[in-house]
Each structure stands twice: as structure tokens, then as C-alpha cells.
Amino acid sequence: MNFNSSNQSEKSQYDRKAELQAFDETKAGVKGLVDAGIKQIPRIFIHPASENLKTHQICKSQSNFPIIDLEGIDEVDSVNRKKIIEEIRDASENWGFFQVINHGICTSILEEMIDGVKKFFEQDNDVKKEWYSRDKTKTVVYNSNFDLYTVPSANWRDTFFCIVAPNPPSLQELPPICSDIMMKYSNEVMNMGCSLFELLSEALGLERNHLNAMDCAEGMVMLCHYYPSCPQPELTLGTSKHTDNDFLTVLLQDHIGGLQVLHQNQWVDVPPTPGALIVNIGDLLQVSFFRLSLINIQTVHTIMKDCEFDSYM
């Protein structure tokens, strides 16, 4: 496999489509490039200077990024539950993001989920590429950049995707190396998601069951991202800036971090908190908080370098 370098002398001969196809046909993803020992990243991964890491490094760390303790949410009409609802309302209106602790999912399950997905991406490529596909109708799909052929610059990450609700896959349909923990973790997140929708309903001044009755928690997709170390991190991104076109995203970060959120026109680091999960109010729900607060908060975010697992609802 021969990738074109990015120097000026080859600019006129650069064939982007051929480079994309050469990369995709390896079925080895970004991890395959790293394993091959590359020293320069292929041009398909280079982002414009206005978008790359150098720009995002000017962001500030925020010690006041919302962290909400969910201890006591099952205490009906308690003072503590009302406090939690107020905190969720404030974070949803002003940030569109918050971290939750004491959410009911054991730390051991979170750690096992991170470990299981790392094992998937770090197994032998001959085993892993069995799952490599761009067929979006499949229950489980592994590839690098689902939009590889349509975006101006690819992101430095590999991903596998799984639809876990409303029709959960069987264990036999999942990668054996992490099938058990995927089922266990997705069930836990689904339960927590239903509780969050209750709290969000009340934060919007609605009946507790309003969002769940609308089937907001009916479907769930799990995205597992892997960001190998990059020889030129200043030229690329793990994930380009974007918003999530869903109701709710529950994100599990590892200890490395890398998530940044656009808040008041400035990029803000979201430091990993042991045992915490990050909640992102998706586009479909954010409009409700926009109407409530009359403040246009668009939950734009990006990833520098990280290992993360998203559950989209």
C-alpha cells in the first residue's frame, strides 16, 4: 500500500479518491497505519489550519463544567430530586452537556466496557476485518470514518457501530471478544437513559413520563471509537466539530480525555472524571430547552485524542 505524501511537489499528482480507496481496501483502519510504522499521516487525514489541533489548543479548562450527582433520584418529590432537576435544567439550557456521577452503573462495568472495546480494536486484523463493512443495514459494522468518501478531511479514528434497540442483537451477532460486556453495558445505559428522560421531562415542566411516552428511549445505537496514537497530531482531529442528531447521547471516556465542548464561543476541555458518564442533549431535544430558555445553545463538540463509547438514544 502506497500513500501519497503531502509535500508541495506532489500536489499536482495527488489523487485523493485513489488514496481513500487504498486506505479503505486494507480494512485495517487507522490502527493499521500505526502498526505499519508510518511517520507522516496520509493527506486524507490532514485538516485545514482553521480546524486542526493548533486552533483547539487555545481552549480553556473549565473547573465549573457541570457535574450532577444523581444520588437520590428515586426519592419521589424529595428536596434532593428537585435539586437534581434544577441542575439538569440549568446545565441543559446553558451547556447542553453535563457529567453524571452516582448514576447506578457499577464502575467495574464501565471499566470492562472500555477494556472490551480496546480488545476488539487491538486484536489481529485478520479477525477484526471480518466485521469491516460500509453496509449500514448490518447490525454490527466496523470501519474507519463512516463518511470517509464524503467529508473534506478524514478523522484519525476507527469505529464499530451496533444497533442495540429496539431490536437487540443476539450474542452470536456481536464480536465474541466483547459481546458479553456490550450486552450488559447497553442494558445498563438503557435503564439510565429512561431515568434521565424522566428528569429531563420534569426539567421542561412536563409530566415525568412525557419523553418516555413519546418513545424517546425506544431506540439506541452504540458507537465505539478508537483513537490510535498519531505521529502528527497537530495536523488532524480525532473527531471533527459536530452536534449529535439524536435526543440524548451518553458518553463514556477513558482516562486520557480529549473531549472539547464549545461554550460561549470558546472551546472547553471536559476532563475525565472517574466513574462519571457524560450526557449530551442532542439536537432533537435541545430545541425544547431553547424554547424554554430563549438561549440558543448549540452543543458543538470535538475530540482531540481519546477512547470513547457513545450510546445514542
Features of this protein?
5-stranded mixed beta sheet, globular, 9 helices, 313 residues, 13 strands
Structural topology:
Layout: H1 16-26, H2 29-35, H3 53-56, E1 60-61, E2 67-69, H4 79-94, E3 97-101, H5 107-122, H6 125-128, E4 140-143, E5 158-165, H7 179-203, H8 210-213, E6 220-226, E7 239-242, E8 248-253, E9 259-263, E10 266-269, E11 277-281, H9 283-293, E12 301-303, E13 307-312
Parallel strand pairs: 1-10, 2-3
Antiparallel strand pairs: 3-11, 4-5, 5-6, 6-13, 7-12, 8-11, 8-13, 9-10, 9-12
Helix pairs in contact: 4-7, 5-7
Entry summary:
The protein has 313 residues and is of the alpha+beta class. The protein is built from nine helices and 13 strands. An eight-stranded mixed beta sheet has the order 2-3-11-8-13-6-5-4. Strands 1-10-9-12-7 form a five-stranded mixed beta sheet, with no helix packed on it.
Write a structural description.
The strands form two sheets. This protein has an eight-stranded mixed β-sheet. Strands 1-10-9-12-7 form a five-stranded mixed β-sheet, with no helix packed on it. The protein has helices at residues 16-26, 29-35, 53-56, 79-94, 107-122, 125-128, 179-203, 210-213, 283-293, and strands at 60-61, 67-69, 97-101, 140-143, 158-165, 220-226, 239-242, 248-253, 259-263, 266-269, 277-281, 301-303, 307-312. With 313 residues, it is of the alpha+beta class. Helix content is 31%, strand content 20%. The chain has nine helices and 13 strands. Mean pLDDT is 86; it is low at 53-58, 291-299 and 304-309.
